[in-house]
């Protein structure tokens, strides 16, 4: 699974799509295509990746001897820098442009220092940079681990209700120094039970629980075979939308277990990090792509799904002209132009 700039839940929410394996596979394919399309449009990758990369020096572009252009390998931060096998101290170089970065597209030697690029046996791969590559490392603390991760090979992690409410398939997480990629979600027992009977009627939206603080607005819960969306919480009462995700509404009795999508299937040690153990209660941080990039990814995915449903047909509707049909794409085209203007690479080597 590649890195996405929107989650499956983003698309399903926009489409009001039911939870089915068939729909999920189709949506996942559309998000993958949209994410790669945004990268191609902007000539850059946005996600943060810990890596070591090698650069020729001189690189054949007749650069200033103190300046190394990173081109499509923009960097967020540098851990170590060396040239010809000789380490260069962090005090002896600058990351540029310092007024707007990250991302930084070049590294410049401090001319007041004695450091220099070059000195290897050949120009090939003379400079080695270890650091966090990408556009930005913007993160949001979304919750905590609900249980310890005692193994470096465990493929699932349990999260709190607050995290469950805002995470989805495609989310990039960081716990301690390890990044994880969410590839699936499943229901887990919340440890809470229904505190009173509730009937089958859709107008019955108050769900009494033992402790409302363990849940979060936006979280999807499961009682018996009915899914519900929490839209508000008043003390120990959950205000919900019944029959969520296409699941049928039903009557439920006091004491019934309440489940929530708090078990995440993950890829461990993602984006150049190392899988590690983590304590229960450790902070879960979500990486957030730039808002315009996320919006365009959602728009492109929705466009793909809509065209698939229409069989990619461009047949005009009754009474419709070609110019009128072109207007259907004006909003998406305007968003593409906006994202390219604000986040596209427009100089140097732009290939992704």
Main pleated sheet: 10 strands, antiparallel
* Overall spatial form: elongated
The whole-angstrom Rg is 25 Å
* Number of self-contained structural domains: 3
What is the N-to-C order of secondary-structure elements (H for helix, E for strand)? HHEEEEEEEEEHEEEEEEEEHHH
* Terminal CA distance: 18 Å
What does this structure look like?
- The chain folds into 3 domains: 1-44 and 288-352; 49-133, no CATH class; 144-286, no CATH class.
- It has 352 residues and is of the alpha+beta class.
- It is elongated, with a radius of gyration of 25 Å.
- A hairpin with a 2-residue loop joins strand 13 (220-223) and strand 14 (226-234).
- 33% of the residues are buried.
- The model has no long low-confidence stretch (mean pLDDT 91).
- The strands form 3 sheets. Strands 8, 9, 10, 11, 12, 13, 14, 15, 16 and 17 form a 10-stranded antiparallel β-sheet that branches. Strands 1-7-3-4 form a 4-stranded antiparallel β-sheet, with no helix packed on it. Strands 2-6-5 form a 3-stranded antiparallel β-sheet, with no helix packed on it.
- The chain contains 6 helices and 17 strands.
């Amino acid at each position: 699974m590649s890195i996405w700039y929107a989650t499956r839940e983003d698309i399903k929410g926009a489409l009001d799509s039911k939870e089915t394996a068939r729909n999920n596979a189709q949506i996942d394919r559309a998000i993958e295509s949209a994410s790669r399309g945004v990268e191609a449009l902007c000539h850059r990758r946005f996600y943060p990746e810990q890596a070591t990369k090698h650069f020729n020096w001189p690189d054949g572009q007749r650069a200033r001897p103190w300046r190394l252009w990173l081109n499509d390998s923009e960097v967020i931060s540098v851990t170590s820098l060396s040239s010809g096998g000789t380490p260069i101290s962090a005090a002896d170089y600058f990351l540029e442009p310092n007024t707007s970065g990250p991302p930084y597209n070049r590294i410049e030697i401090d001319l007041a220092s004695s450091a220099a690029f070059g000195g290897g046996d050949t120009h090939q791969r003379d400079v080695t940079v270890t650091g966090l590559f990408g556009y930005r490392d913007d993160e949001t603390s979304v919750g905590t681990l609900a249980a310890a991760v005692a193994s470096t090979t465990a493929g699932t992690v349990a999260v709190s209700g607050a995290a469950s409410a805002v995470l989805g398939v495609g989310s990039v997480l960081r716990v301690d120094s390890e990044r994880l990629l969410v590839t699936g979600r499943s229901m887990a027992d919340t440890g809470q039970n229904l505190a009173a009977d509730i009937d089958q009627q859709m107008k019955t939206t108050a769900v009494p629980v033992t402790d409302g603080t363990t849940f979060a607005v936006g979280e999807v819960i499961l009682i018996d075979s009915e899914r519900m969306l929490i839209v508000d919480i008043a003390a120990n009462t959950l205000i919900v939308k019944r029959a969520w995700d296409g699941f049928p509404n039903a009557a439920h009795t006091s004491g019934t277990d309440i489940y929530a999508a708090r078990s995440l299937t993950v890829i461990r040690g993602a984006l150049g990090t190392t899988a590690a153990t983590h304590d229960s209660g450790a902070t879960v941080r979500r990486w957030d792509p730039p808002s315009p990039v996320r919006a365009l990814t959602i728009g492109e995915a929705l466009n793909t799904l809509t065209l698939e449903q229409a069989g990619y047909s461009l047949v005009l509707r009754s009474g419709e002209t070609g110019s009128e049909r072109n207007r259907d794409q004006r909003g998406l085209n305007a968003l593409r132009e906006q994202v390219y203007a604000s986040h596209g690479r427009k100089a140097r080597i732009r290939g992704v």
